[in-house]
Specification:
This protein has about 160 residues and is mainly α. The protein is built from 5 helices and no strands.
Length: about 160
């Protein structure tokens, strides 16, 4: 049995949920025309929010189980993403590539915005690119998480 069997299970389950969110976004995008109504914008925003939140749950589990704990302080959300892009000596390789991390930073920024405004203030121009790029982004997230799971399974 792998040393990190529980962590591998948690990452796999959360990754499956991320895939479900991508499927939901693709359905939402089919309903969206040039300028969607506020309900569709809110739905797309919620899916984007949930996607990054789910990814951050994975980061938190890795930080606790492998790294020795979460970053502390006000900017811990940014710091945990940065940590996932780095090798932790004698513990693990980078979970995600720097390039993927740069793309995910846009989703982190959006999640922050989403949490701090009213839904009716959300503009489609702010969501559209993130929503449309979500399937390709998730494909890369999925590949890199599976590579990390492969690393964990060998320990």
């Amino acid at each position: 049995m792998a040393k990190f069997a529980g962590l591998i299970t948690d990452i796999s389950l959360e990754n499956k949920n991320l895939g479900r969110l991508v499927d939901e976004m693709q359905l939402a995008l089919k309903s969206i025309k040039d300028q969607p109504d506020t309900t569709l914008i809110r739905a797309a925003g919620s899916i984007l929010h949930d996607f990054y939140t789910g990814l951050e749950k994975i980061f938190e589990r890795i930080a606790y189980a492998v790294d020795g704990g979460l970053p502390e302080g006000e900017g811990w959300h940014t710091q945990i993403l940065r940590r996932m892009l780095a090798n932790v000596p004698n513990r693990r390789p980078a979970v995600l590539s720097v390039e993927l991390g740069e793309n995910l930073n846009e989703y982190l920024s959006f999640r922050h915005l989403f949490r701090h405004i009213y839904g009716f203030e959300l503009k489609w121009q702010r969501c559209q690119n993130l929503a449309e790029n979500l399937p390709a982004l998730y494909k890369e997230v999925d590949l890199q998480l599976k590579a990390f799971i492969n690393f964990l399974s060998k320990l």
